[in-house]
Amino acid sequence: MIPGMPLPVRLTPESCASATRALARRDPALARLVKRHGPCTLGTRPRRDSFSSLVRAIIFQQLSTGAATTIFTRVMATMQATQCPPAATWLCTPEDQLRAAGLSGQKTRYILDLCRHVTDGSLDTRGLHRMPDEDVIATLTQVKGIGRWTAEMFLMFHLQRPDVLPLGDLGVVTGFARTYGDGTRPSADLITTHAEAWRPYRSIGSWYMWRALEMS
């Protein structure tokens, strides 16, 4: 980030509510989702520190919330921690202990790679909140196991950035197809073009695409 530039905007409960009302006025289909599912909750959740959020993001990849929560709890127990410990503690924990707690070999390698980036100073997790969205993505995807999708989820749910459009998210794509089409998978270009009307709050529009999947 260039010195003197303002910090990137993040959602608050007030700005999220105001943005939701604005999007509902612009987009009738989105307005129906807002009416059915209530206000968007992005920007209302308490934030963990960035390192622990990234560890959780890796553990939760491709698992149900229940299964991932169980593994996370077991891993914390084996490390004798009540919350995610610092990177140095992970690096001092034998890998076989982490795997015995239910963490896969692949995810163990991903988390330890994240820890090495943090401890050698190549990833300053405390400075991520000052970076523009694309810089956050470029920085995080240097870590094994963190791809664009994981970085975008980090932007939306941890940094609470308002204008993220995760085109690689199956839920967003499927929700868009259900809301605006006949269920046929839309192209990334089509979603991008339509979502121009959601700027600068594409995170909120994306959140409602997930809610669309809850409709019968």
Description:
- This protein is mostly helical and 216 residues long.
- It has 2 domains: 13-44 and 164-212, Endonuclease Iii, domain 2 (Orthogonal Bundle); 50-158, Endonuclease III, domain 1.
- The chain is 58% helix and 0% strand.
- The chain contains 12 helices and no strands.
- It has helices at 13-26, 28-37, 50-60, 65-78, 87-92, 95-100, 105-119, 133-140, 148-158, 170-180, 188-195, 202-212.
- The protein is elongated, with a radius of gyration of 19 Å.
- The protein starts with 12 loop residues before the first helix and ends with a helix.
- The model has no long low-confidence stretch (mean pLDDT 92).
In short:
With 216 residues, the chain is mainly α. The chain has 12 helices and no strands.
Number of helical elements: 12
Order of helices and strands: HHHHHHHHHHHH
> How far is the N terminus from the C terminus?
45 Å
Unreliable residue stretches: none
Q: How much is the average pLDDT?
A: 92
CATH topology of the largest domain: Endonuclease III, domain 1
Coarse structural class = mainly alpha
Write down the Rg.
19 Å
Q: Return the domain count.
A: 2
Share of helix among residues?
55-70%
Name the CATH superfamily classification of the largest domain: Hypothetical protein, domain 2
What characteristic shape results from the CA principal axes? elongated
The portion of residues forming beta strands comes to under 5%
Can you name the CATH architecture of the largest domain? Orthogonal Bundle
CATH class of the largest domain reads Mainly Alpha
